[in-house]
Amino acid sequence: MTPTPDGPHNSAPRFERRVVLLAILAGLPGGIVALLLIWSGDMTPRSQWTLTFGIVAGWGIVAMVLREQVVRPVQTLSNLLAALHEGDYSIRSRGARTDDALGLAMLEVNALGDTLRQQRLGALEATALLRSIIAEIDVAIFTFDEDGRLRLANIAGQRLLGQPAERLQGRRAEEVGLADALAATPPHTLAADFPGASGRFEVRRRDFLQGGRRHRLLVLADVSATLREEERQAWQRLVRVLGHEINNSLAPIKSIAASLRGVLARRDRPADLEADLERGLTVIGSRTESLGRFMNAYARLARLPPVRPRPVSVEEIVARVAALETRVPVEVLGGPPVVIQADGDQLEQLLINLVRNAADASLDCDGRVTIGWERQNGQLELRVEDEGPGLADTANLFVPFFTTKPDGSGIGLVLSRQIAEAHGGGLTLTNRTDRTGCEATLRLPFDARR
User: Cα separations (Å) of 135 from 79, 157, 158, 159?
Assistant: First the structure.
């Protein structure tokens, strides 16, 4: 800070002069009286001058001692505060005591120094720990300033970009190949080819302030191995399900075909040959048709189109879905007026699946189906409740092609959850706690400003 004419460099001398001046003025009345008595008495001139010199000299010495007693503690206090301002918390005052006001001030400054020292030590330890974690963590971490220049890259980030931190410092995102990652909307999976690695990376980004300036934190995690493992497991599950269903159909077809071939190879064909052929071909046709339905159901699950969001009124779409179910009573409990951004066709298909399942469960129990919704924690929560027997097996609800219905395909709930997750929401099924039955809860994000 540049001192002004009335700033720190001039205020201290002026303060000291005022102390001396006040000390002189405090002794002025007594000094004048003493001098008048000396010079009006019967003393010799030499004695008068000697006493006058002694009084004036003592007067000055007392003023200077008083100045030191007042100014020196203030200077000490100023030096302590200056040291704290510069970050030096090791200096302490020896005049700290509790039996006078100045000593209390010194004591408080010493306590402030101890507190700041502890806080600084804690901050340094936390910073050192954070730096160690950032340096050792196997995730690439970068920070960019408000001008888009790279300011920090941990060891994993340096390894990913194939350059040391000294060469990366101050370069723009475009120059180091991070422009796409920095512009991506997190959370996002980005396929990229860096000098140190290539594959798919999960992108995380967060803004923060440092020194009053906006910075951006970028985190890149290589998820290629994880995704490959997930894909491998998905393929294994798919092959297992497909193999199970196909074998269930091919085994009787193969058995019946072998039996019919054996009958036709006999010389003495039975009289009911035509009836056996008819029954065998019927079974073969039935199993083939069942296998065709299964493959069509799988194709339908695999070909779910991307979401095309547009404003959808929850009240209107629920009313349409409720009107489609005529086997059991469907009561719309309603809720607040909500308009969400969603794919109306997919959302309607999801609700149709939920209402149909609820109606199937309530049909044999002469129960009803209720639909209601509410706003909860920034989300739309829509509930479809039935009065059926409830869920006996919750572990396999969302397993593809698993069904407890004789004519079920086993993809309705899987498709419904896939639609919900594609909209950024979720779907859960639980047994009701107030009575027997099931409760399906659909959660979808919505704009609370609408």
Answer: 39, 9, 10, 11
Crossing angle of helices 344-363/314-324, nearest 10°? 40
DSSP SS3 for 274 = helix
Residue labelled with tokens 């030191």: 68
CB distance 380 to 314 below 8 Å:
yes
199-253 residue pLDDT tens: 888 888 888 887 778 888 888 888 877 767 776 776 666 666 666 667 766 777 7
Q: How far is CA 251 from CA 6, 248, 294, 360, 406, in A?
A: 103, 6, 16, 31, 20
Q: How far apart are CA 351 and CA 319, in angstroms?
A: 11
Q: Could you tell me the two tokens for 75? A: 């200077």
CA 428 to mean position of chain CA atoms: 23
Give the dihedral of Cα atoms 282, 287, 292, 297; nearest 10 deg: 130
Can you point out the beta strands (E) in 126-197? Answer: 140-144, 150-153, 188-193
Eight-state DSSP code of residue 387: -
Characterize the bridge pairing of strands 330-334 and 310-313.
unpaired
Rounded Cα–Cα distance for residues 78 and 74 (Å): 6
SS3 280: helix
d(CA 302, CA 299) in angstroms, rounded, equals 5
Distance CA 29, CA 157 (A): 80
Q: Facing residues of 342 across strands?
A: 310
3-state secondary structure of 137: coil
pLDDT at 11: 45
Q: Is residue 140 within 8 Å of 156, Cβ to Cβ? A: yes
Cβ density class 338-358: b for 16+ within 10 Å, e for less:
bebbbbbebbbbbbbbbbbbb
Spatial CA neighbour of 158 closest among 131, 180, 138? 138
Residues 6+ apart with CB under 8 A from 70: 19
Spatial separation of the C-alpha atoms in residues 71 and 2, rounded to whole Å: 23
Residues with Cβ within 8 Å of 348's Cβ and at least 6 positions away in sequence, in order, are: 317, 320, 321
pTM of the model: 0.42
